[in-house]
Write a structure and sequence with these properties.
178 residues; Porin
Length: 178
């Protein structure tokens, strides 16, 4: 009886040890990713905005037989201004991604969508942002590196996010994909 328990325990340990290798050997066509990082203001908001943060959730669908895939990103960013308020943006973008192969993969992506933006409601003496909110066409272009960590992936990327003249930023994002 004790021998059988040890045999089952050894089998279970072998299986658990092999799972990451099995998972990384199988290409999953659909991946979900979550990340966050710094957002650097650009355009007009760079005049009074400071480094902020971004959060991202993505769906990535690899197309069979090639390096091209589809990508959908949900993005939130907050860029503080010098007066205590924040420029915020919430958006969704969809587009294409091109990826290399291997355990460290360079990739590039581009997409279009919409960005709901809001400026801080405050008066600065020489100007005000009152009423500067709305939804606008947005586009992104970026590049990154993906890393295999067994069954989980990691990524680091930078993008140009343009939601109109007053709503441009350069988010740098790191995260995990499943």
């Amino acid at each position: 009886m004790m021998t059988r328990t040890w045999v089952h325990t050894v089998r279970l340990l072998c299986l658990l040890t092999a799972l990451p290798a099995i998972a990384s050997a199988q290409e999953r066509p659909l991946r979900i990713a979550f990340g966050g990082g710094a957002s650097f203001p650009s355009g007009h908001i760079a005049e009074e905005g400071e480094m902020g943060y971004n959060l991202q959730a993505s769906l990535r669908l690899a197309l069979a037989g090639g390096p091209v895939g589809l990508r959908a990103d949900g993005i939130y960013q907050s860029i503080p201004d010098e007066h205590g308020g924040s420029f915020t943006g919430l958006g969704g973008l969809a587009g294409l991604a091109v990826s290399g192969t291997g355990s460290v993969r360079p990739y590039g992506f581009a997409g279009v969508g919409a960005l709901k933006h809001e400026a801080p409601d405050e008066e600065h003496g020489d100007h005000t942002h009152e009423g500067e909110r709305g939804t606008s066409f947005a586009y992104q272009v970026g590049a990154g590196l993906g890393f295999d960590l067994g069954g989980v992936g990691a990524f680091a990327e930078v993008r140009w996010l343009d939601g109109g003249e007053d709503h441009r930023a350069i988010p740098i994002t790191v995260g995990l994909s499943f």
